[in-house]
Amino acid sequence: MSHPDTTPGARPPALLGTQGAIFLAIVLGAAVLIPALNLLTPAGSALHVPTYLVSLLGKYLCYALLAMSVDLIWGYVGILSLGQGAFFALGGYAMGMYLMRQIGTRGVYGDPVLPDFMVFLNWKQLPWFWYGFDWFPFAALMVLVAPGALALVFGWFAFRSRVTGVYLSIITQAMTFALLLAFFRNDMGFGGNNGLTDFKDILGFNVQADGTRAVLFALSALALAFGYVLCRYLVRSHFGKVLIAIRDAEARVRFTGYRAENYKLVAFVVSACLAGVAGALYVPQVGIINPSEFSPANSIEIIVWVAVGGRGTLAGAALGAVLVNYAKTYFTSGVLAPYWLFMLGGLFVAVTLFLPKGIVGTFLDWRSRHAEAEPDVPGATPKPVA
Amino acid sequence: MRLAAAFLAFALAVLTVVVSRPAMAGPYEDALAKFTTESYADTDEGLGLLATSGNPLAVDIVEALADGRLLFNADAKTVYVKKADGSLIDAATGQPATGVDEAALKPVRANNRVRRAIEAASGALSLMNPDPAKRLAAAQAVFKSRDAAARPALETALSRESDPQVKAALASARAAIVLNDSASPEADRIAAVDTIAGAGNQDALALLQNVPADAPAGVKTAAASAVASIQHSLAIWDVAQNIWYGLSLGSVLLLAAIGLAITFGVMGVINMAHGEMVMLGAYVTFMVQEAIRTYDPGLFDASLIIAIPIAFLVTGLIGVVIERTVIRFLYGRPLETLLATWGISLILQQAIRTAFGPTNREVGAPSWMSGAFEIGHLSITYGRLWIIVFAGLVFLALLGTLRLTRIGLEMRAVTQNRRMAASMGIRTNWVDAMTFGLGSGIAGMAGVALSQIDNVSPNLGQSYIIDSFLVVVFGGVGNLWGTLVGAMSLGVANKLLEPYAGAVLGKIALLVIVILFIQKRPRGLFALKGRAIEA
Amino acid sequence: MSDILMAPEAANPPRAITEKTLTDALLYLNGVSVTFDGFRALNALSFTVDAGEMRAIIGPNGAGKTTMMDVITGKTRPDIGEVFFNGGTTDLTKLDETEIATLGIGRKFQKPTVFESHMVIDNLRLALKGQRGALANIFRRETGEERDKIDAIFETIRLSDHRYRLGGALSHGQKQWLEIGMLLAQDPKLLLVDEPVAGMTDAETAQTAELLRAINANGHSVVVVEHDMTFVRDLGVRVMCLHEGSVLAEGTLDQVSANERVIEVYLGR
Q1: Where in chain B is the domain with CATH 1.10.3470?
Q2: Which residues form the signal peptide (chain B) (predicted)?
Q3: DSSP summary character for residue B96
Q4: How far apart are the first and last CA of chain B?
Q5: Fold equal for C1-103+238-247+255-269 and C105-236
């Protein structure tokens, strides 16, 4: 071995690294290019990106951010949350409540304050927890606070009493299942079964308009880029090193004097907030939020996105989300629709058996073997030991 | 119905022989005479006499009168019952009447007053029906109607009754009348309150809560205290009923979770496809019933018995295949196993959806699964009872397998210390495959039971999987008793919460309770303790 | 004579242990028992470790050595008994692993446990005494002083050439040393070292003994659990033999190995 200072990796790796730079370039490039191609080219042009495609891609970006939030805790801390969809949905509901309040008198019943479903249920006044949602900054804050608070309370209990591994996975699943049941109830005040929909405008702009859609897309891309830089910064900090250490040898971390539960809790809350932001950006682009977002199956599906892309690589999680969802869109819209679940199920099995590091993880391994260099994020790719 | 009618006819025939003596003047004969006068008032009166006459022929007379089949000869003062086949029966003797001039016969007519009397009379007569079930129903009807007119009939019936259950019902009915009869002495009415309180059910409660306002204070006090005591005992019965429902739910949870518990306990594997094994078991039941319908409908009652071993073998085999092709490559990676088995569950669901369609499939219940009986105020349906029995048998069988067989010994060894077991020559691979097969097979058998109480659809398994996990986690891993206690306590807690919180909120509350419980005891109720567990 | 009423300061210690030993001792165990499912892992175990002392603990398998470490480090709670640290000022049975580690008790596991997907240097950075708060560590920068300390530890554990390799890529012996290095970085008052030379070559074993002596000479108290008698002899310290969860014999290695009961236990009866 050569002198330490000339060893690869002696220099602290850059915040982004090559992989990160490429990822950011693509995401930010898309943030500019796709809205431009949508708004500035004529409809018939070969370069024109139709609005439905902008929204579809925007949806993928939200999923990518959601996947990244899962990767932060699964890839780097070893917390397999089967309830991440709950945080996504809570963020979505916070945004949905804002959008409902913006409808005003344009609803079917024309009530200036009460959303249609409340009029329908014969409610006389707005429940207290709907107050403030007509004011965007408050709603935006709630997008972070609602999932963050749930994660804080849930994580505080779970991590403090050292619920780990599959036990943790199961109770996160129970958490989202309980929320699913709760949000299905009409008297919860969130629109029950139908959820929140028929949105009209956001900050005064029509949610259906091309321009709004383009801006929402660009915002989703920016959020993804921001999320990436944030996660990347976190996992490379001393804090992040402790997270990885917890993933690999939690007991050792405790005996070294760290409060593992606090570290997990911070990561869990950050992850929940990112998921909430993803949900909030998702809702105006798809035009609806309903309790099915809480379904345990949805949350598990997020895991496979991360697994496909590569656990513990952040960019891989985003890539996985886009690829799997593109495949889903492609197959469920064609004659192959009945076979989509076979493919999704097969994907779960195939990835765990044959590609445990995912696409990006496998690629990084291959590259580091060929370049005989250390990966630029130390400890980035976890052993396949969960 | 037809059986009852035949029985009646037979009883009638027998009794006719006994009773048909030369006509003696009695209430029955007086009653018959009243029907020949063409006066509604007389007919009414006749019905009253008939009802208390105690003559077994009376039922037929009243029935015939109601249908307009009661004929009379005004001159001869004779009465006949015209049967459905047109033949005539002499009402006085019950013997077929011969040589009757039908042209001289006229039907006994009825107006509204008479019709009311017919109703009352047939009610009173049913009190003396030879079929105890009918007598019971009649007594209960009187109890509800509290028709004072029925009192004479009631008393006649009471004096003859030998069946204790019917006798109690008759006494209650009589007490109900006495209680509401302002002419009865206070002591009798208080005694009536006691009699009614003895029945102790909802009807008695309603009756006692509605004591007439003009009743003497003593009666009212007695009624009030009886109401309190009935309410108390009914509340206890209510809890008992809910516990029964809870045990029934618990045994369903036990069936669904116990296979999961052994795969989790022995292999540390969370099998997300476990619910689909249950679902496959239910579809096996469906196919067995289809085959029976096609080839030998007479076997239908045995369909579940036949389906149980087939479901066990089919799902057990699928379990072994899954273990050999997927899970064995993932040992030591529980979270990856969780994901892979989730993938398998999606594939199995879609396979069933493709093969059988997305809609519910009809699985019938054999006759021995339907019906109910009562213990005190508990209503117990045979369906639930058999599922509890079945869950108990499966539990015992599994316990026996683990305790008494070689494979059971090996499974326990692997649960406690896999490495040590391997070094002692136990083929842990084989044990894993067998464990997974066994767990899946038990899920299949659970599916046979669930086909009786739930919709058989591709989503069947999904509705149980989360609950099953909670049972396993709550009960503690590697301990069948933990699973039993976990399933039963979750089942009972669920049903006890429901009346207060409603089904959905109760369920949510339970999820929250379990989540909090796991915080307290992260390894469940019956956790294994010691150093080996940390490894 | 009630153990329950005895406050650490106003100690009224039972039996042989005097008030002086309690207040002097860095680590003080008295009457500690632990039972797992009917198996008595520790049985009224009592002993003290003085500040600056190095102590070797031997004993056959199942003697309770690892359970003893679990009790001291807060991983296992004793059923009964007292465990005090810092001259009787701190009751360890009330604290959890993290608090105990922060107090200055470091532990090396029997199976070498390093952070395998971290570089060797990051293993030391993580262990280095200093900020442990989650939020503060998000923005933490390494200081020059910390860098110097790490360099010094690298010298001590002889892994300077491996600082940028992954922890998981080290050999077994190197991992043992790295773990000892991580203990040093924690700068504890007391090091609990569980079988540090298991799987090492003779040369490595000798080096490890030297290393531990050097650590002890620097003012750290050390408790070493080890089977390897050559190694224990190399350490040249007071030896305590555990058997069935309590102290069987105590003294120099020669005294202990001459003890008839110890011979009986090791050679079978």
Answers
A1: 237-534
A2: 1-25
A3: B
A4: 69
A5: yes
Query: What percent of chain C has a predicted confidence (pLDDT) above 90?
Result: 38
- Rounded Cα distance, C262 and C256, in Å: 7
| B353: number of Cβ within 10 Å | 16
Look up the pTM and report it. Answer: 0.81
H-run or E-run covering A321: helix A315-332
Q: Among A296, A348, A384, select the one facing B340 at the smallest CB separation.
A: A348
- Does C176 contact B at CB distance below 8 Å? no
The neighbour count for residue A280, using CB atoms within 10 Å, is 29
Residue B279 DSSP SS3 = helix
Among residues A4, A83, A147, the alpha carbon closest in space to that of A298 is found at: A83
Return the residue of A nearest to B344 by Cα: A345
What length does chain B have? 535
Residue A275 sits at the chain C interface (C-beta within 8 Å): no
Task: Map residue C131 onto helix, strand or coil.
Answer: coil
Query: CA–CA separation, A36 vs A218, rounded Å?
Result: 10
- The CATH class that applies to domain B237-534 reads mainly alpha
C180 within 8 A of C108, measured Cβ to Cβ? yes
For helices A51-77 and A238-255, angle between their N-to-C axes, nearest 10 degrees: 30
Contact of A234 with chain C, judged by CB distance below 8 Å, is answered with yes
Find the CB nearest B342 among A160, A177, A300: A300
Q: Do B334 and A165 touch (CB under 8 A)?
A: yes
Q: Is residue A70 within 8 Å of residue A172, measured between CB atoms? A: no
Quote the minimal CA–CA distance from C37 to chain B in Å: 6
Tell me if A352 and B339 make a contact (CB, 8 A cut-off): yes
Give residues with Cβ within 8 angstroms of C232, minimum separation 6.
C56, C58, C224, C226, C239, C253
Beta-carbon separation of A169 and B338 below 8 A: yes
C37 touching chain B per CB within 8 A: yes
The whole-angstrom separation of Cα A155 and Cα C24 is 42
Q: What DSSP assignment string belongs to A83-117?
A: THHHHHHHHHHHHHHHHHHHHGGGSSS--SSS-HH
For chain A, domain boundaries: 16-295
Are B412 and B402 in contact by the 8 Å Cβ rule? The answer is yes
Q: What is the DSSP string of B157-221?
A: HHHH---HHHHHHHHHHHHHHHHH-TTS-HHHHHHHHHHHHHH-SHHHHHHHHT--TTS-HHHHH
**Does the beta-carbon distance from B466 to A173 stay under 8 Å?**
yes
Tally C-beta pairs within 8 A across A and C. Answer: 112
Query: Hunting for tokens 């037929």 — which residue is that?
Result: B60
CA distance B505 to chain A (A): 7
Strands C90-91, C190-194: pairing is unpaired
Lookup: tokens for B421: 């077991």
Average pLDDT per run of 10 along chain A, which is 386 residues long?
40 71 94 93 88 94 98 95 96 96 89 90 92 95 97 92 85 92 91 92 92 95 97 95 94 92 97 98 96 94 94 94 94 87 92 91 86 49 44
Query: Is domain C105-236 classified as CATH 3.40.50.300?
Result: yes
d(CA A275, CA A64): 10
On average, the pLDDT of chain B sits at 82
Q: What is the pLDDT of residues A251-272, one digit of tens each?
A: 899 999 999 999 999 999 999 9
Spacing of C-alpha A144 from chain mean position: 13
Contacts of B531 in chain C (CB under 8 A): 36, 66-67
This complex has an ipTM of: 0.86
Pick the CATH number of C1-103+238-247+255-269 from 3.40.50.300, 1.20.58.1970, 3.40.50.261, 3.30.70.580: 3.40.50.300
